[in-house]
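Hey Z.,

So I finally got round to the ME8 thing we talked about over coffee. Here's the setup:
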Amino acid sequence: MESKNFYVTTPIYYVNDLPHIGHVYTTVVADVVARYKKLMGYEVYFLTGTDEHGLKVEKAAKEKGLKPIELADSVVENYKKLWPKLYIKNSDFIRTTEERHIKGAIALFNKMKENGDIYLGKYKGKYCVSCEAVLTEFQAKNNKCPDCGKPVEDVEEESYFFKLSKYQKKLLEFYEQNPDFIQPENRRNEVISFVKSGLKDLSISRTSFKWGIPIPGDEKHVMYVWLDALSNYITALGYPDDTELFKKFWPADLHLVGKDILRFHAVYWPAFLMSANLPLPKTVYAHGWWLKDSGKMSKSVGNIVRPQYLLDQFGADALRYFLLREMVFGNDCNFSDEAFLNRLNSDLANDLGNLVSRTLSMIAKYKDGVIPEPDRESEEYREIESLAKTCGVNWESYFDTYQFHKALSEVWIFLNHLNRFIVKVEPWKLVKDSTLARKLDTVLYVLAESLRLVALYISPAMPEKSQEIWNRIGFNRDIETSPITFLKFGVLEGGIKINAVKEHLFPRIDIKEYFRDVEKNKGEVEKVEGKDFISIEDFAKVQLKIARVLEAEKIEKSNKLLKLQIDLGGETRQIVAGIARKYKPEDLVGRLIVVVANLKPAKLMGVQSNGMLLAASGDDGEPFILTPDSGAKEGFRVK
Ligand code: ME8
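And the result:
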């Protein structure tokens, strides 16, 4: 019988940089797979974490005047705070600086050594710090890394070596016998030709820097960061101890990686495991790159997409949906705000959001908000039941083969059928003819039941909004722990009361207005980030004043903005502030704040703003309002 456990991992991310859209992508995909498998009855273990050792992190810390562990501690916080905001529910988060990991990585090294696969030698060659990759002279043509294009360093030092060459034949046999091990197919072929071209023994220790796990018995060496990092997938399960977790979840079912690090996972990692007599993971899936303006994102170009802004503006589900729907899993994909907003407006606001609104408003209007009992033998019932079945079968097979964009597009095919079905049956006409009452009941029921199913189908991708749909149709169950039997059409029972909510599930975004706001924000950010000093006269041009909040309310269609009426000492003004994610309107009324009183008036999301509230901004954009010391009064100037 097929085992009902599933172990999925993401790469562990370097702590030299803050999370960006690429890290978000892999982790969202892992979360979606984990949620899907849970829905299908699996017990799931989902691991992510951070890769904290190595020269790259050591150098980044030095540049910032920090100890490596200080840099790691602060960056890790960003990851740990970001994941819950994206509804990412990992089972564990491993850091390679944790004792449990270090102990496991050393045990793996010792095991490989015990089995005769590690020897001491001399390493002379090239090293790419950015990729933390050992390269041959041939690979590093013109002293550049073949993967990232950055300059490489010359290295010559004593080093421990792993007998990778010994595993060339075994690896090729393994790939042959396990065609699903490396996916997608084109990447598999690349790896196979790489291995066929000849494997050299791998240098797995360094003596020229200190930030790493010391080699047992020869502590001037630190462990090669990739041996250290890859072992996280087993150390998190308790390796080398014979833990329940290890027994249950190793070997991993799915290692998700970006194409940049496939070689490490599909060549080195299985060879290390073979050497330690451990079973090999079932699949390593390499996805493509998110590109910006069709080019690679990079810090030096300054085109890295950080998720925080999109997340704040449009919520986790919109971002998750976009990432999954837009990218063909395995291929590269361009990231653009236009594409994001178009998906939001057309797929989420129009196709899905409108269907929810239309269905529920008809049930509210024609049936007093109670879902009617259908005629399960009728033509309408059968028609929609059969469409739902087709959708379900395709959805499952696409999910099982990790074709997320296709799985979602199947659901949208179904949604479009439902929208056309409403136009065809014209419920607004049925309601006028009492002989057609039964037909109207069936039509309304099948629409509500389809929404219940659609919500379940999209729940791995959109955990928040799918639950919201269930709540709105009055199916007050926890979608995350939904039993597999709920994936059948006809589960909803007539007689339940819907929760008529007026707010749109996904408000439409005015794209032109959005770009106007973004342009303006960009200008402000550039000004603030400019490194030039300003004179006291320049500063004096900014009128900072104390104000008291008189009224506060949310701005419709925005997750981020609040409209405030403030008292500036005799003068009442309206301003708009981007603090809604953290502060509730009622908590602000009566508070003293600091505002820029002479800022040029502007419109944000169509609402007039005559000043700007001051707030400190955390690493991930979280706002912290500034408040004056007690005794300060409305209208006081801040200088
Ligand atoms: O490589 N598009 O960490 P890392 C899509 N620590 N995905 C992207 C991306 C992009 N533009 N940029 C990054 C490391 N990624 C090692 C891993 S694992 C034992 C050690 C994603 O912080 C993608 O998953 O450089 C890639 O593999 C990962 O981030 C690299 O993260």
